[in-house]
Amino acid sequence: MRDINVRFGMSAGKIWRTLNENGEMDKEKLLELTRLNDDDFNAALGWLARENKIALDNNCLKLDVTNLEGEIGNHAGMIWRILDVWGDADIATIKRLSHLNDEQIYSALGWLAREDKIYFNEKNKKYSLK
């Protein structure tokens, strides 16, 4: 199993630096400037939300006290419970059991990674609790 904290943490750093240098911006512009794929971008948002560093205001992301903890935190709790019961699960299984979309799943995984609670097994492409 590999530690996804490095991957998600580096992605969060790219978003933080870009917003710090350029100010608030919409998701599309931020994706363009950071060159992150959608999954890493959403995981990084979850990471930054868990750190209380990013907020969404009028469809723009900015560095601020987060207003995303309710939604992302609840989704993270849902995924944590799934992994607690199942032991490990791939994205398709998490999606089926949680009824969350990819954006919600990856932001929740980013939140859990920031809390150092999950591993990603690259061989079987499954997430599990530490």
Q: Strand arrangement, largest sheet? A: 1-3-2
Give the end-to-end Cα distance, rounded to a whole number of Å: 10 Å
Number of strands: 6
Q: Give the topology string: H per helix, E per strand.
A: HEHHEEHEHHEE
Total domain modules: 2
Plain-language structure description:
There is one protein chain. This protein folds into 2 domains: 5-63, Winged helix-like DNA-binding domain superfamily/Winged helix DNA-binding domain (Arc Repressor Mutant, subunit A, Orthogonal Bundle); 71-129, Orthogonal Bundle (Arc Repressor Mutant, subunit A), CATH 1.10.10.10. The protein is of the alpha+beta class and 130 residues long. Helix 1 packs across helix 3, helix 3 packs across helix 6 (102-114) and helix 4 packs across helix 6 (102-114). The strands form 2 sheets. The chain has a 3-stranded antiparallel beta sheet. A 3-stranded antiparallel beta sheet has the order 4-6-5. It is built from 6 helices and 6 strands. The model has no long low-confidence stretch (mean pLDDT 95).
